[in-house]
Amino acid sequence: MDQNSDIGVDRGVVITNDALDISHKSGDDIAMAKGRFAFASAPERSLALGEVHARPTVLLAPSRIIIQLAFMMDGGSAVHHSVIAEMSRSRGVAPPERDARHHAMPWGQGTLRWERHTEFSTWFWDGPAPEKFGGEIAGDPFGDGFSPPGSLISGVRLEIRPESGFTSQAETIFEPTSLCHSDVRDGQAAILTDFRQDRDGLTQILVIDRGLSDYSRGALVQRLLDIETYRTLAMLGLPMAQTLSPEIRRIEDGLTGITQRMKNGARDEADALLAEMTRLAAELEANAALSLYRFGASRAYDGIVRERIRALAETPVHGHETMGSFLERRMAPAMRTCQSVEERQANLSRKLYRATALVRSWIDVELERQNTVLLNTMNKRAAMQLRLQQTVEGLSVAAISYYVVGLIGYLTKAISHDVLPVDPAVVTGVSVPFAVLGVWWVVRRIRRSHAEGGH
Prior knowledge:
This protein is an alpha+beta fold.
């Protein structure tokens, strides 16, 4: 068989060996060119070039059944990789590279395709459609030997059948209260589903083929699978929103009580109010951090669902609603609930910040008042110390002068009358003003030198 010949049984998935081996081709192999323009490429170029070819449209033949399962990354991507690698080796196929995001290999009368996403992986298998719609499936890879890599988040059973007498009665298979029936591709196909699960827990979708090409058939199937997978993932934000809503209400009530106390002028409770608001803010931020990724992912998944529904370009069949209108009526309220909780968190965070800033201003004003009182007290104390120091200095001048005059008196008395023909008492008395001035001048110099040294 030629290396590039098509692989498929009963005109199932028409896919080449090159396409099956796409997960083994590195980005460098795709990006590196030969010839005159084989320049050194930017590191990101290979990833950018390879990404647009990472999910080639599956070419599907008529009368096929498709099973797609989506498993969450509960144990990490390594678990998912090990499962697909082991399945590849069991079929004699080279396993994907450790960082591969896509892998495909023949399985039975169809192809098993694996894709790794951020928080889940999808496992797609097609095979010949059973004789009856909803009949037993043969040859799928999800039997007793299959080891699920994580918890199942989405499961789809999609059958493609040509228009016949059976398909004209297909509406009776589904639950009439939630049946969606629409035409797509300008009437080349019809879609029927009730978004309910069969006995195996899979959502059933029927595509009535009225002349689709293999490419159009594959593109339509991929859009339908994406709608079911991503609408389930988008709804994961709703349980978290419902859980957080009472918590947000409790924090809102707590903030209302605090602001009422602030309104009543509870300035003496500023420290207690600040501590309580800090606790509420910590709880709010913890919940916001917990829900940040989930709500963001729900928005992204909801956007993908809307894009896929627009691409379907459904035409409603009389008496029934389309998939788009059905999901809009059920998903839109859930997404608005998530958005409302997210907005309440953001608004509450801003209110807590403003209230906290107000209480902090109270505390700052009180601290400034206390600092002013403290400074005034210190100024008074310094003035008292200065006056006391000046008093002590005056007393010191008097005391030192007294001792100096006394020394002069002793000195004059000791001198002979012949040497100093003046009465010692007169000398002592005359020395008093000079002694006082001299001591005062010395003390003043000492005080000035200390003051200059302090600067």
